[in-house]
Amino acid sequence: MSGGIKMRSAVGSQGAVHGLDALQKRHEAGQTLPTLLCDGRNCGVPVRFVPAHTQRGTDRHAVVELPAYITLDNGAEHAPGCRYNAPGRLAAVLASVSDADVVQALDDGRHELRLLGLHQALKRGATDARLDGDLHTLTDLLAVRAMCGSDDLIASQVVLRLGKKKVAWENFFYDQERYDAAWHRLDAASNDVPLALVGTVRAHRAAQGEAGQGSTFLNCAPKYQQSGVVDRREFVEVSVGHDDAAWLKTFPVGAEIVMVGLWRHGRTSTSTRPHPTDPRRTITNVTYKLSLRPSSRFQLAAVY
């Protein structure tokens, strides 16, 4: 169950720590990669490096740029107390829950995560210690989900509910490959719906113009997809805006983060540029934007 965990560092057989950037550079230079072991306490199982690469997405035109990561070797399992042991981390988060109005144990051993109270509090825009604590629990759960390759583990243990309706994890949690699905989910929703996205920080920038005066935006790596139309490319871009630039910059470029809240459509933009090899052609880029304006700092969390 924990085979899909993504790691950012590992140790070599001689005890040296190896991070993703150094391993990626060795890969690009064609150098031999070291034997890698899990750097979790009292673990040390074999792991392997997966270099940055592109992957065909869920539709035939989508192309997703995936960052490098480290994962378990085939057949290996993390030790029970290892921080990368997803079932163990999930069980620990659920055991630490103190607010039964948000997470409630079910008779079959699973837990129910109730989103309605969080949803209503986020719509009001007011924060308090209880809401912050509930959001902290939620982002801890989302971080475990983000470390896994699919919804399978968390969906087997945690049922989502929004009011009287159950919500499938695929309609709540979206990774980079599914940013377009999140955009369409907002498009189809008759009311505000809370969504969780995971992304890799690409940049921080100050807002331009009077409307965004004082704000800073944290931008994540976008989803790129071919449109099926010659010389037209589409991007789905995710950003978080806040007046506290220093806080947003605590999530550095390259960090993987989870973001949860009431998302909004930004303004769709279109730009053109000359084709790089054929002066008779023009490339059109269309960017669809998803934006979040958090009222609580606990709406964002680092994955690791």
Overall description:
The protein is of the alpha+beta class. Helix content is 22%, strand content 35%. The protein has seven helices and 21 strands. It is globular, with a radius of gyration of 20 Å.
Q: What's the oligomerization state?
A: single chain
Query: How many β-strand runs?
Result: 21
Question: What would the average pLDDT be, to the nearest integer?
Answer: 89
Number of continuous helical runs: 7
- Tertiary shape: globular
Backbone structural class: alpha+beta
Radius of gyration: 20 Å
Order of H and E elements: EEHEEEEEHEEHHHEEEHEEEEHEEEEE
| Terminal Cα span | 18 Å
Helix content: 10-25%
Features:
five-stranded antiparallel beta sheet; alpha+beta; 304 residues
Annotate the secondary structure layout.
Blueprint: E1 9-12, E2 17-19, H1 20-28, E3 36-37, E4 46-50, E5 53-56, E6 62-66, E7 69-72, H2 86-95, E8 103-105, E9 111-114, H3 116-124, H4 129-147, H5 152-157, E10 158-162, E11 165-167, E12 173-174, H6 179-188, E13 194-206, E14 216-220, E15 223-226, E16 232-242, H7 245-248, E17 256-262, E18 264-265, E19 269-274, E20 282-292, E21 300-302
Parallel strand pairs: 9-10, 12-13, 16-20
Antiparallel strand pairs: 1-2, 1-3, 3-4, 4-7, 5-6, 6-15, 8-9, 10-11, 13-14, 13-17, 14-16, 15-16, 17-21, 18-20, 19-20
Helix pairs in contact: 2-4
